[in-house]
């Protein structure tokens, strides 16, 4: 009998219950879930009815086989659900998956209502939109975020979110390129690289995939990699402010990065999804750095600014000056991918995005961002007061707490078991995350306060 | 203003060279856009280099824009890109409005949804389309559209396999196959990419491939009702296809985006065929069914029974792709989709489908009355018109030049589309009638 559990609890918006083994156990091939979770949930098919079940002759994509487990955040969701089953009356507080919680300001939803309604009128109906996004929105993004940085409206490609853009960028670059990522970093960079076939196998001893350059970012190096120690990659994923560490690179650091890219002929993919959370005057866009247009792509999102995590809207900037080694503009190939592998972001979401960038919308977004920043302060203070070494929290809605010498999945489990608070284990973001736990600051104020009370109780 | 001019008949046996040069605006010619400045050392993806020109539909748009520049006062009628024109039913938009309003409230706010789609919608899709076919909601993956799903499926399958497509067919199958690295170079003489199997679907074979002559491939893209030919495969044909896939161990990717347009008893889903769950994935969309071309919603069914050669369930990997390379369709749009599938919604979208099919009937009648051989228009919103001995881009150009009507040249869908023009039936009734009259006038006058 397989180790199957029936996850039938109502699925929260942040969970992905699909991988629940119960959906498979009646057919040939099922997923077994190890009871003792040691951090890695290995989803392996063990065909029960292998002899009788029909199999196609299509060989499984070996790249998919290289992936070690499910994507990080559905795994977190699964733990949360398992916990809820165990403690059905527990008031679980989710500070794990970085999911926004505060309502979207009305100035923004009004615009989306208007657009939705208009679609049922003859004058207001629109079918296919430009795959690159509606012109007014592209223009507004350029003028809001890239004013005087030499980025033009047609350098902007509107999308259904940064995560999707990351994979589309991987499709543009293909399998014959090598990536460098920060370690720790947002898992989609590594996972999409594996899926695309850029990497070798996972090496369990070092917890890294072969042929990816992992650029260690630690408190000791100010969360900026020692670029002199890495071998030339083609593509460098750089997220600033960083998920999960919260570190925002300084102008000096980004200048080094741009120089490194220039010297090595590499392309930087700068993920600026949290730029609005920056407190000081660290650069909000890579294009603030001279010369960046010839070496960098920037991807960003309305998810964490406007609470659009479910609405789905983002953008990617590819300057005209960014060229492949044969002189061909990268933007042209990205455009081809956007036209062929995508069909534009939803027109309703785009209407919302445009409203986000109106003066009133910008103010409303800043207020929401400010709210989450205040949450972050509360969490930082809490862990500070408990004597922990705490990082991040100043320029991002994430608090990166150090638990020296401990396994991050163990700490995750301990916190979950004893305080019913979901966090994210640092090793889920790469081996450089071991010994840390990420606490996200999205949540209703009372939940944040309650979670902090529980932390104080546990670690006093 | 539309002016009638009498000039040489474009579809005579002599190849007609229009004075207006048909520019195949290519954005992939090597070095066409080389800039002076820093070049990175990142090599261009060789797969993208293989692509012959821009994706078909932006190319059509570009021709339209050029034409408008030449004739700024022309009343251009667009029967090219299959873009829906009729407003959404209010039952659908009001549910989206309600959902949107809820997003501004504490109780109605929603963040990340399940990447596979909202449970209620997955269930409603099963009830609406797969009732009694043994498909479960857990096998349904909601998306932002079929075109996006096709590429995600290619990403899933990887570069090391061979794909078969109908010829002619929706260009995204071939283009995505090239992009992901499954195809070889394009061969000018044949108009085909190497390592893609082009299954000719012409009137001689009732628009169904001669399967015994097709070598084995790992993937088979099959679109029914077909874009561009409009042919809906019969039950018998689909049984043959499923059997063929089974014998060869292939996976069918069945595109049923136009199934709502079927008027006879052709199967609407591949899963109506016994055994299909073990060999087929089905992709579909709200675009043409509900006018969601700009709103963006679709779904893909991956049955649990579909296994790789090592027994690993395909659905498992597809789920991983959806969780890693995607983040769910917009929640607002999913609310709209759910409303489409309510009894009231289904009734409303049905009447819009009927509207387009009446458009199709008008076009078919008009063209048939001129003695043209016309296919499609019965089970799909596309009319597939034969101009024997012609080059389809030339016919496209002449129709555009002389009647200000945009169509799509058949060769854009593959070499099997040469000599054909696809006319789409989406449009306001008045435009369709006007277009029919212009075509009749042009072609009638050519005759006389």
Please give a structural write-up.
- The complex is a heterodimer of chains A (460) and B (448).
- Chain A has helices at residues 62-66, 72-86, 106-118, 135-145, 162-173, 187-196, 251-264, 303-306, 330-340, 347-356, 359-385, 408-419, 445-459; strands at 93-94, 156-159, 179-183, 202-203, 208-209, 212-216, 235-239, 267-271, 296-301, 314-317, 390-392, 398-402, 421-422, 424-425, 436-440.
- Chain A has 13 helices and 15 strands.
- Chain A folds into three domains: 3-69, no CATH class; 106-358, 3-Layer(aba) Sandwich (Aspartate Aminotransferase, domain 2); 360-459, Alpha-Beta Complex (Aspartate Aminotransferase, domain 1).
- Helices cover 35% and strands 12% of the residues of chain A.
- A seven-stranded mixed β-sheet of chain B has the order 2-10-9-8-7-3-6, with helices on both faces.
- By secondary structure, chain B is α/β, with parallel strands linked by helices.
- Chain B has three domains: 6-43, no CATH class; 56-87 and 345-447, Aspartate Aminotransferase, domain 1; 90-343, 3-Layer(aba) Sandwich (Aspartate Aminotransferase, domain 2).
- The radius of gyration of chain B is 22 Å and the shape is globular.
- At the A-B interface, α1, α3, α5, α6 and α7 of A face α1, α3, α5, α6 and α7 of B.
Structural class of the helices, strands and pairings of chain A?
alpha/beta
The H/E string of chain B reads HHEHHEHEHEEEEHEEHEHHHEEHEEEH
CATH superfamily of the largest domain in chain A: Type I PLP-dependent aspartate aminotransferase-like (Major domain)
The helix tally of chain B amounts to 13
Number of helices of chain A: 13
Strand content of chain B: 5-15%
* CATH topology annotation of the largest domain in chain A: Aspartate Aminotransferase, domain 2
Rounded radius of gyration of chain B (Å)? 22 Å
Low confidence ranges of chain A:
1-42
- Overall 3D shape of chain B: globular
Give me the secondary-structure category of chain B.
alpha/beta
Count of spatially separate domains of chain A: 3
């Amino acid at each position: 009998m397989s180790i199957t559990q029936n996850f039938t609890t109502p699925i929260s918006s942040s969970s992905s219950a699909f991988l629940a083994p119960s959906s498979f156990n009646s057919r040939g091939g099922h997923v077994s879930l190890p009871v003792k979770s040691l951090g890695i949930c290995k989803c392996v098919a063990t065909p029960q009815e292998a002899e009788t079940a029909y199999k196609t002759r299509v060989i499984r994509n070996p790249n998919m086989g290289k992936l070690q487990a499910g994507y990080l955040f559905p795994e977190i969701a699964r733990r949360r659900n398992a916990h809820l089953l165990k403690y059905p009356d527990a008031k679980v507080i989710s500070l794990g998956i970085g999911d926004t919680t505060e309502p979207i300001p009305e100035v923004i939803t009004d615009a989306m209502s208007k657009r939705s309604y208009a679609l049922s009128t003859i004058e207001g109906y629109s079918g296919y939109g430009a795959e690159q996004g509606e012109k007014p929105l592209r223009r507004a993004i350029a003028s809001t975020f890239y004013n005087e940085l030499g980025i033009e409206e047609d350098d902007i490609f509107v999308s259904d979110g940064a995560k999707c853009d990351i994979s589309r960028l991987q499709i543009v670059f293909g399998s014959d390129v090598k990536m460098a990522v920060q370690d720790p970093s947002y898992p989609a960079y590594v996972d999409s690289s594996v899926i695309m076939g850029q990497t070798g196998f996972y090496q369990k001893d070092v917890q890294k995939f072969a042929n990816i350059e992992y650029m260690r970012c630690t408190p000791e190096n100010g969360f900026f990699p020692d670029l002199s120690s890495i071998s030339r990659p083609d593509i460098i994923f750089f997220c600033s402010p960083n998920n999960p560490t919260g570190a925002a690179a300084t102008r000096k650091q980004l200048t080094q990065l741009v120089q490194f890219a220039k010297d090595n002929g590499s392309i930087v993919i700068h993920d600026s999804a949290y730029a609005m959370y920056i407190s000081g005057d660290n650069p909000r866009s890579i294009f603030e750095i001279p010369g960046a247009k010839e070496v960098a792509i920037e991807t960003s999102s309305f998810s964490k600014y406007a609470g659009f995590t479910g609405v789905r809207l983002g953008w990617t900037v590819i300057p005209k000056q960014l060229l492949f080694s044969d002189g061909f503009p990268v933007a042209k190939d990205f455009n081809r991918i956007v036209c062929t592998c995508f069909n534009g972001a939803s027109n309703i979401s785009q209407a919302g995005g445009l409203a986000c960038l109106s003066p009133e919308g910008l103010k409303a977004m800043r207020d929401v961002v400010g709210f989450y920043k205040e949450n972050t302060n509360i969490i930082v203070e809490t862990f500070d007061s408990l004597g922990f070494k705490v990082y991040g929290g100043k320029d991002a809605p994430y608090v990166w707490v150090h638990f020296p010498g401990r396994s991050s999945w163990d700490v995750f489990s301990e916190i979950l078991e004893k305080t019913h608070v979901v966090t994210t284990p640092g090793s889920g973001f790469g081996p450089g995350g071991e010994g840390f736990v990420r606490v996200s600051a999205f949540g209703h104020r009372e939940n944040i306060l309650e979670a902090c009370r529980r932390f104080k109780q546990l670690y006093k | 203003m539309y002016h009638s001019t009498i000039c040489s008949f474009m579809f005579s046996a002599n190849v007609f060279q229009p004075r207006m040069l048909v520019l195949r605006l290519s954005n992939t010619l090597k070095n066409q856009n080389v800039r002076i400045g820093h070049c990175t050392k990142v090599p261009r993806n060789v797969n993208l280099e293989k692509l012959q020109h821009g994706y078909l539909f932006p190319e059509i748009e570009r021709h339209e824009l050029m034409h408008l520049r030449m004739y700024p006062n022309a009343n251009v009628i667009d029967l090219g890109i299959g873009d829906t024109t009729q407003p959404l039913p209010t039952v659908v938009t009001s549910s989206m409005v309600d959902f949107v309003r809820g997003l501004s409230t504490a109780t109605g706010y929603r963040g990340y949804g399940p990447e596979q789609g909202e449970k209620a919608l997955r269930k409603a899709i099963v009830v609406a389309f797969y009732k009694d076919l043994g498909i479960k909601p857990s096998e349904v993956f909601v998306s932002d559209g079929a075109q996006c799903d096709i590429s995600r499926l290619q990403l899933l399958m990887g570069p090391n396999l061979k794909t078969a497509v109908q010829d002619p067919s929706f260009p995204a199958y071939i283009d995505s196959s090239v992009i992901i690295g499954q195809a070889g170079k394009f061969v000018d003489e044949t108009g085909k990419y190497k390592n893609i199997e082009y299954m000719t679907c012409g009137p001689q074979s009732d628009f169904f491939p001669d399967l015994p002559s097709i070598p084995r491939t790992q993937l088979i893209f099959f679109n029914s009702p077909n874009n561009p030919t409009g042919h809906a495969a019969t039950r018998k044909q689909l049984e043959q296809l499923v059997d063929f896939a089974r014998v060869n161990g292939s996976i069918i990717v069945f595109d049923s985006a136009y199934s709502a347009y079927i008027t006879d008893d052709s199967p609407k889903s591949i899963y109506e065929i016994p055994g299909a769950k073990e060999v087929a994935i089905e992709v579909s969309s709200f675009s043409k069914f509900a006018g969601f071309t700009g709103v963006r919603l679709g779904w893909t069914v991956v049955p649990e029974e579909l296994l790789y050669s090592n027994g690993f369930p395909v659905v498992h990997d597809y789920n991983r792709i959806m969780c890693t390379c995607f983040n769910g369709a917009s929640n607002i749009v999913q609310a709209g989709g759910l409303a489409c599938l309510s009894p009231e919604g289904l009734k409303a979208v049905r009447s819009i489908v009927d509207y387009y099919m009446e458009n199709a009937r008008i076009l078919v009648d008009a063209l048939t009355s001129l003695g043209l051989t016309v296919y499609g228009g019965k089970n799909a919103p596309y009319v597939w018109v034969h101009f024997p001995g012609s080059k389809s881009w030339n016919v496209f150009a002449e129709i555009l030049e002389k009647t200000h009507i945009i169509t799509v040249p058949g060769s854009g869908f593959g070499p099997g589309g040469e000599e054909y023009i696809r006319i789409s039936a989406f449009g306001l009734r008045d435009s369709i009638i006007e277009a029919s009259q212009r075509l009749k006038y042009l072609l009638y006058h050519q005759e006389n």
